[in-house]
Write a structure and sequence with these properties.
This protein has 5 helices and 10 strands; from the N terminus they run H-E-E-H-E-H-E-E-E-E-H-E-H-E-E. By secondary structure, it is of the alpha/beta class. It has one domain (3-190): Rossmann fold. The strands form 2 sheets. The protein has an 8-stranded mixed beta sheet with strand order 5-6-4-3-7-8-9-10, sandwiched between helices. A hairpin with a 6-residue loop joins strand 5 and strand 6. Helix 2 packs across helix 3. The radius of gyration is 16 Å and the shape is globular. The chain binds guanosine-5'-monophosphate (5GP). Guanosine-5'-monophosphate is lined by residues 19-21, 27, 60, 99-100, 124-132, 161.
Length: 193
């Protein structure tokens, strides 16, 4: 069992059959030592990649992706949720359905901060149905940049996102993959990796 799986068992809370709460250490209160370790682990897993930029989506991915960007020594750009229409064509846009809020958001990245020829590592806290990742991938590709891989802190392996994104040919590295969980008993079962 790795350091993250241990922490999930200690402090994670199974809210329902498909929602895991990790807000005491990952995405509300943040354990910076743990997140630093997560940053180092992603650097190790993508060590052979030529990463020129790290990208995530606001809000909960930002703190994690910041430590990954620090490890690679590259900037972090996060996609912003936007209500305004792209009149000037100065942003890349994707539509993302939120797993937790069940609404659709347009997310945007300014064309100033993502260019053709860049090599992007995408980072997020959770992978469920894969909408957030698909939105980020489409933004990177519409810029003419390359997705070098996707680093996920917690993948819920019983939801479709991981399989869908891997089937599209992308390298997805998840530090913990939850294969099953049960709200009543609080049990979390991890995939052997
Ligand atoms: P997806 O787009 O893959 O369906 O969902 C990923 C996004 O939804 C992540 O950015 C994450 O913020 C949120 N999310 C998905 N599942 C969970 C979960 O079980 N717990 C928490 N806290 N967030 C989740």
């Amino acid at each position: 069992m790795n350091f993250l799986e241990e922490r999930i068992l200690k402090d994670g809370v199974v809210k329902s059959s498909n929602v895991l709460k990790v807000d005491s250490f990952l995405n509300h209160q943040m354990d910076i030592e743990l997140i630093e370790e997560i940053g180092r682990e992603f650097k190790r897993r993508f060590a052979n990649k030529n990463v020129t930029k790290v990208m995530t989506i606001e809000a909960s991915g930002i703190g994690i992706a910041a430590f990954v960007a620090k490890e690679f020594g590259v900037p972090l750009v996060f996609a912003k949720k936007s209500k305004s229409i792209n009149i000037d064509g100065d942003v890349f846009v994707a539509e993302v359905e939120s797993f937790t809020h069940r609404n659709k958001n347009q997310v945007v990245v300014s064309k100033k901060f993502l260019h053709e020829g860049e090599h992007v590592l995408i980072i997020d806290d959770f992978l469920a149905n894969g909408c957030a990742l698909q939105g980020l991938i489409s933004i990177v590709e519409s810029a003419g940049a390359t997705v070098e891989g996707c680093g996920i802190v917690i993948e819920k392996g019983f939801q479709i996102g991981g399989r869908a994104i891997r089937n599209m040919g992308y390298q997805v590295e998840s530090l913990a993959i939850v294969d099953a969980m049960d709200a009543e008993s609080g049990t979390v079962i991890f995939r052997e990796q």
